[in-house]
Specification:
7-stranded parallel beta sheet, 13 strands, binds 2-succinylbenzoate, globular, 36% helix, binds magnesium ion, alpha/beta
C-alpha cells in the first residue's frame, strides 16, 4: 500500500502506582503513538522507548527525531510498501530498533486492517488466550511487596516477576516464596544491576525454585552470562542483550541463556520478533513475551505474539488496569487468569478518539495531506 503520511503523537498517561526498577522509578508514561495514513485506511503503532535512555540506549525524543528525519521519509518516497519490506527499507539506518518497530507496526496494522486479518493469525498464533503474568516493581518494604503480590494473585495472575537489585533480592524473594508457597510461578528481573563478581550471591537465589533470573548482567556481557550460567542452577533469561534473531542464536549457542524474553520493540519489530521465536524454538529454548509498560495498542500486539507456539512461559501480559486507570483503547482485561488474544483485524483494538485527544500533548504529521 502507499503510505501518504505518518502522524507522530505523544500521549501522557499517569500510572496507577509508581513503577520502580533497578534503573529508575516511573510515575507516568509518556508514549509515542505512530499512525500510518494510507488511501486504504489507517494503521497504528506504539513505540516502546522510555523517556530516558535508562533501559536501553533509545529514548522517546530520539525515536521521534529519527522517525521524522530518517525513517519515515524513505517509506513515503515509495509508491508501494508492504509491512514485510519495511525492515529492509529502513536497514541503512543503524540501530533505533524501537523506532523502526513502531513504524513497521503501523504499516502492518494498516495492511492487516485493509485485508481483514487479525495480527494473531498473521503472526502464527495457536491459541486465543494467553496466561497472564505481572511484573512487580521494587517496593518500599517487604510487607508492602507481600500486599502488592497478594493483590495480583487475587486478581488471577498466573505468574509473578519481581524486580530485583543489589539490596533488594534474597529477602523479598524469600518472603514471597514463604508467604505464597512453592507452587507459585515466580521469577526475578535485575535489568543489568549485577556483575559477574556477584555470582556467589546470585547463587543463593537457587534455594527459591525460581523459573528464571532475567538479565542479571549488562547488555553487552553475553559471555559473562554464559560464565554465570555455569555457576547458577536458576535458569538465565536474557532481555536487554537480545536485539535480533542472530543475537538470540549466538547467546543460546554460547550458553548465555536457556530462556529468552521477546520484546518486539527491542528487536526492531513484530516480524523480527517472530524470527527470534522461531530461532529459539529450533534450539528448544522456551520464550515469553516481555512488556514495556505499553498502552492498549502495544499490549494488544504483545498478546498476538504471545499466542505463538514457542511462548511456553507466561509473559508480562497484564491487563490495562495493571498500569492505567484509563487506557487509550478499549481496556484489555483478565478472564480467569488469562488474557484473551484480540481477534478483530490488525491489532484488534483502536484508540478511543476522545481519550486519545485528552491525553495528547503534541501531534506532528510527516508527509502529505490526507483527506479522510
Ligand atoms: O525489563 O522487563 C523489563 C518495564 C520497562 C522496561 C523494562 C522492563 C519492564 C517491565 C514491565 O518489567 C513489564 C510490563 O510491561 O509489564
Ligand atoms: Mg526485563
Amino acid at each position: 500500500m502507499k503510505i501518504v503520511a505518518v502522524e507522530l503523537r505523544r500521549v501522557h498517561m499517569p500510572l496507577v502506582a509508581p513503577f520502580r526498577t533497578s534503573f529508575g522509578t516511573q510515575t507516568s508514561r509518556d508514549i509515542l503513538i505512530v499512525r500510518a495514513l494510507t488511501p486504504a485506511g489507517e494503521g497504528w503503532g506504539e513505540c516502546v522507548a522510555l523517556p530516558e535512555p535508562s533501559y536501553s540506549s533509545e529514548y522517546i525524543d530520539g525515536a521521534q527525531d529519527v522517525l521524522r528525519r530518517f525513517l519515515i521519509p524513505p517509506l513515503l518516497a515509495l509508491g508501494h510498501v508492504a509491512a514485510q519490506d519495511v525492515a529492509r527499507v529502513l536497514q541503512p539506518v543503524r540501530g533505533h530498533r524501537m523506532a523502526k518497530a513502531a513504524l513497521e507496526m503501523a504499516v502492518l496494522d494498516a495492511e492487516l486492517r485493509a485485508r481483514g486479518e487479525p495480527l494473531a493469525s498473521y503472526l502464527g498464533a495457536v491459541r486465543n488466550h494467553v496466561e497472564a503474568g505481572v511484573s512487580v516493581g521494587i517496593a518500599d518494604s517487604v510487607g508492602q511487596l507481600l500486599d502488592i503480590v497478594g493483590g495480583f494473585l487475587d486478581e488471577g495472575y498466573a505468574r509473578i516477576k519481581l524486580k530485583i537489585q543489589p539490596g533488594w533480592d534474597l529477602e523479598p524473594v524469600a518472603a514471597v516464596r514463604e508467604r505464597f508457597g512453592d507452587d507459585l510461578l515466580l521469577q526475578v528481573d535485575a535489568n543489568t544491576a549485577y556483575t559477574l563478581a556477584d555470582a556467589p550471591h546470585l547463587a543463593k537465589l537457587d534455594a527459591f525454585g525460581l523459573l528464571l533470573i532475567e538479565q542479571p548482567l549488562p547488555e553487552e556481557q553475553v559471555r559473562a552470562h554464559a560464565e554465570l550460567a555455569k555457576r547458577l542452577r536458576t535458569p538465565i533469561c536474557l532481555d536487554e542483550s537480545i536485539t535480533s534473531a542472530v543475537s538470540a542464536a549466538d547467546a543460546i549457542v554460547m550458553g548465555a541463556c536457556s530462556v529468552v524474553n521477546i520484546k518486539a520493540g527491542r528487536v526492531g519489530g513484530y516480524l523480527e520478533a517472530r524470527r527470534v521465536a522461531e530461532v529459539c524454538g529450533a534450539h528448544g529454548v522456551p520464550v515469553w513475551c516481555g512488556g514495556m509498560v505499553e498502552a492498549g495498542l502495544g499490549r494488544a500486539a504483545n498478546l498476538a505474539l504471545a499466542a505463538r507456539p514457542e511462548f511456553l512461559l507466561p509473559g508480562d501480559n497484564s491487563a490495562s488496569q495493571r498500569f492505567y486507570a484509563q487506557d487509550i483503547t478499549e481496556p484489555l482485561t483478565l478472564h480467569d487468569g488469562m488474557m484473551p488474544v484480540p481477534a478483530a483485524p490488525g491489532l484488534g483494538v483502536t484508540p478511543i478518539p476522545e481519550v486519545l485527544s485528552e491525553l495528547t500533548t503534541s501531534v506532528e504529521q510527516v508527509g502529505g495531506r490526507v483527506h479522510q
